[in-house]
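Revision sheet: structure tokens.
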Amino acid sequence: MDERLNFVQRMAILTELVCQLGEVGRTSLMKLAYLLQTVKQVPLGYRFQFYLYGPYDPQVLSDVSVAEFWGALQEEYHAYGRDSYGYKIRPTEEASKLTEMEHETVQRYREAIEWAVQEFGNYNAAQMELIATLVWIDREFSWKSRKSTVKDLVRAVRNLKPHFSEREVEQIANNLHQKGILLSVVSK
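Predicted:
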């Protein structure tokens, strides 16, 4: 992995990601940052830990807050109903100033950013939670030199996140496996 990016470079990467998406929630942005760092080895330098909704590092939200303070991003509270709320993160007209300031960094990782947007940009927050959790468990298996099957991953995810159906987890896991994202899964 390259040397870790500094915080201005990280904010430029996150800002470019939001610019390409147009709008994204906190959970989805967190998982996209995790996938960029873990799957595409973008050296964001985050220290993700497994949390309620999957891999999480509060530094991602801190970087978003600073990007908002600098005028590159706008974060807005949004109520979806009586019991449901979230945040929408959008680029501002000033976003290009930050991405242009770190043009070389953004260009170096443009392919990875575009990959994340193309592969995962249309998933909702719950689906991103599931995707990132599958990758997290897969990497745990891989780091322990443990080979697995899709069924093993499904079982492990369902133990942590029983609110996802077996069918739902298996479908996403098979999709990730077909795309070559899962490292621990051996073909049958």
